[in-house]
Design brief:
Blueprint lengths: L9 E8 L2 E15 L4 E7 L4 E5 L2 E5 L3 H16 L4 E6 L4 H6 L7 E6 L2 H10 L1 H4 L8 E5 L2 H7 L4 E7 L15 H10 E13 L5 H12 L4 E9 L4 E9 L9 H11 L9 H7 L4 H9 L16 E5 L2
Parallel strand pairs: 6-7, 6-9, 7-8, 9-10
Antiparallel strand pairs: 1-2, 1-13, 2-3, 3-4, 4-5, 10-12, 11-12
Helix pairs in contact: 7-10, 8-9
Length: 316
């Protein structure tokens, strides 16, 4: 377009719907590999810093990943109040573990990721994200299959966080968004525990995946709640689902939340405080109505399939 200065000749085009594409300008490719499980890029962008891209889908970026990772981790931790043992399924960049380790009450966090090559690339190229979380003595990194760990662990976990890549059919995680998977999670939760799932976009045009995931979590856990955070690099507000046998405080007192964070964390949060948490948990009406109207529950026989992949290409 006339009058617009374009700063990049290399672009990652992420397909959001059949009619919508979100494009990020790339200034440098730091790492590229086709692993046994997925295609990985780690890149530098012109606006949002370094980013991790798996199978063409934007995972996180140093410029705004704190929005996603704080929203993923802390609401459930605050609900619990004093989490000691936390299990992370996925989480390759290490930023989820970073946020968990802010809690002084945490004694152990186990991170299970199937793709060791992605984890090693993130350790090397994305120190801004993990901030040495992998080297913390409380961290136990396991390169392996989340389903196998859930089937074999004897430990009970206060918090289980499912931080998996989007469920595209060719990817490694599309079967891990199903009722059978959530039942395995329920088995390993300690009494009073909470489960959190990254649950897809909540833009009106893309809402069906999120609504069905929330209904699927609700088919396993007596209590479930949908919430979202607006992470710019995803081109869409991103949804989460929290499930538990315990009540989920959806209208937490801001002053009480601030006191919990002050006493039980090391601080440094950029997104979340008492007021922000209260606002985040007030799920918009259109999302609540879509969840209420949805009847399908995802299963291994009928797992979810996220739309599209992305491409990296030169400007013509």
């Amino acid at each position: 377009m006339a009058g617009i200065k374009v700063g990049s000749d290399l672009w990652i085009s992420e397909y959001i719907t059949p009619w919508d594409i979100y494009v990020h300008g790339v200034t440098k490719v730091l790492a590229y590999k086709k692993t046994a499980y997925q295609e990985m890029y780690i890149v530098e962008t012109g606006t949002y810093g370094k980013g991790l891209v798996l199978d063409g889908k934007w995972q996180s970026c140093t410029g705004d990943e704190f929005i996603y990772h704080e929203a993923l981790v802390h609401p459930a931790m605050i609900c619990h109040g004093s989490p000691r043992n936390v299990l992370v399924l996925g989480g390759g960049e290490g930023a989820t573990v970073r946020e968990i380790l802010r809690w002084k009450t945490v004694e152990q966090v186990m991170m299970v990721d199937i793709d060791g090559e992605v984890v090693e690339a993130c350790r090397e190229h994305l120190p801004e994200m993990h901030q040495n979380a992998f080297d913390d003595p409380r961290t136990n990194l396991v390169i392996g299959d989340a389903l196998k760990v859930l089937d074999t662990t004897e430990k009970k976990w206060d918090i289980v966080i499912s931080d998996l890549s989007d469920p595209i059919e060719e990817g490694p995680s599309f079967q891990l968004f199903t009722k059978e998977y959530f039942e395995k999670v329920q088995r390993v939760l300690a009494p009073g525990g909470y489960f959190v799932l990254q649950a897809g976009p909540v833009a009106p045009a893309e809402l069906k995946l999120h609504a069905r995931l929330v209904r699927t979590v609700g088919a396993v856990f007596p209590n479930v709640h949908s919430y979202a955070a607006h992470t710019p690099t995803y081109a869409s507000p991103w949804g989460f689902a929290i499930g538990s046998a315990e009540a989920i405080a959806t209208r937490p007192d801001p002053e009480t939340t601030d006191q919990i964070l002050q006493e039980k964390t090391t601080g440094g949060l950029r997104l979340l405080d008492g007021i922000a948490l209260l606002g985040m948990l007030q799920t918009p009406a259109y999302i609540r109505r879509a969840i209420a109207a949805e009847t399908q529950v995802y299963s291994l026989q009928e797992p979810p399939k996220f739309f599209g992949k992305g491409t990296l290409g030169q400007e013509a």
